[in-house]
């Protein structure tokens, strides 16, 4: 059976929409069974409902800084929907060590930089200020530290003359929308093994350093070899 996957959002959910689009293919190895937001006004909830995906809201502001209670309420929703994998897609909350441990190697995130560079916020402006020539995005397994964890996939884009944070962000986001569904598929298909804090991926498209654009011409394999 396909792993039942929850996508956690806080806003518009553009990466969520990319995952929903990928999961609509019957050959995709994960089933999106829940979209959960910590904000009732998150625009992505309407997108999920329009796609026929169950939604839930656990308002983080209602818990007045009690992170343990907030995460317990989220966990109750995940258990109720029989979730096996979690994908963070613009989920703007730092998760505790206990929550990360409960979902160790079953929870992934997409971050708009080539980690370990530019963890945290304002990555595009910081990349421009640093004068880097390549920027990009990373999909990684989640650990308690901010934007830390074994890297599953990365895609790079050039930093062009005249770029500002907005133009660079748009170029990176286009790669996030391609990279995240591929990485979730590898995890759902059992093609990811973690050795220490290094992820090894058996999917043919992930052999060696990932090229940009991501080589996905061949169908995703679910055989594990």
UniProtKB/TrEMBL annotation:
Keywords carried by this UniProt record: Purine biosynthesis, Transferase
Domain Formyl transferase N-terminal, residue spans: 4-184
UniProt GO molecular function: phosphoribosylglycinamide formyltransferase activity
Active site residues according to the UniProt entry: 111 (proton donor)
Annotated site location: Raises pKa of active site His: 147
InterPro entries, sorted: Formyl_transf_N, Formyl_transf_N_sf, GART
Binding site for (6R)-10-formyltetrahydrofolate: 67, 109
Pathway: Purine metabolism; IMP biosynthesis via de novo pathway; N(2)-formyl-N(1)-(5-phospho-D-ribosyl)glycinamide from N(1)-(5-phospho-D-ribosyl)glycinamide (10-formyl THF route): step 1/1
Origin superkingdom: Bacteria
Enzyme class, spelled out: transferase
Record carries keyword Phosphoprotein: no
Transferase among keywords: yes
N-terminal signal peptide: none
Annotated catalysed reactions: N(1)-(5-phospho-beta-D-ribosyl)glycinamide + (6R)-10-formyltetrahydrofolate = N(2)-formyl-N(1)-(5-phospho-beta-D-ribosyl)glycinamide + (6S)-5,6,7,8-tetrahydrofolate + H(+)
Pfam families cross-referenced by the UniProt entry: Formyl_trans_N
Amino-acid positions noted as binding N(1)-(5-phospho-beta-D-ribosyl)glycinamide in the UniProt annotation, renumbered to this chain: 13-15
E.C. code: 2.1.2.2
Similarity comment text for this entry: Belongs to the GART family.
Function, in words: Catalyzes the transfer of a formyl group from 10-formyltetrahydrofolate to 5-phospho-ribosyl-glycinamide (GAR), producing 5-phospho-ribosyl-N-formylglycinamide (FGAR) and tetrahydrofolate.
The protein, known as: Phosphoribosylglycinamide formyltransferase
Recorded name of the encoding gene: purN
């Amino acid at each position: 059976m396909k792993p039942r996957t929850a996508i956690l959002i806080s806003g518009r959910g553009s990466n969520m929409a990319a995952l929903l689009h990928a999961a609509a293919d019957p050959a995709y190895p994960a089933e999106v069974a829940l979209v959960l937001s910590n904000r009732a006004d998150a625009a992505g909830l309407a997108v999920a409902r329009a796609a026929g995906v169950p939604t839930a809201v656990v308002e983080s502001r209602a818990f007045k800084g009690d992170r343990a209670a907030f995460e317990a309420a989220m966990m109750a929703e995940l258990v109720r929907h029989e979730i096996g994998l979690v994908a963070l897609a613009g989920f703007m909350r730092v998760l505790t060590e206990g929550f990360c441990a409960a979902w160790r190697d079953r929870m992934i995130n997409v971050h708009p930089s080539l980690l370990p560079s530019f963890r945290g916020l304002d990555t595009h402006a910081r990349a421009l200020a640093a004068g880097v020539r390549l920027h990009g995005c990373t999909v990684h397994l989640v650990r308690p530290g901010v934007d830390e964890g074994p890297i599953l996939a990365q895609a790079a884009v050039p930093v062009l003359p005249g770029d500002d944070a907005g133009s660079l962000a748009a170029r990176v986001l286009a790669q996030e929308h391609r990279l995240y569904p591929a990485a979730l598929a590898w995890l759902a298909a059992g093609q990811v093994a973690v050795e220490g804090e290094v992820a090894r991926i058996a999917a043919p498209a992930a052999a060696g350093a990932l090229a940009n654009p991501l080589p996905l011409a061949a169908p995703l394999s679910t055989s594990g070899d």
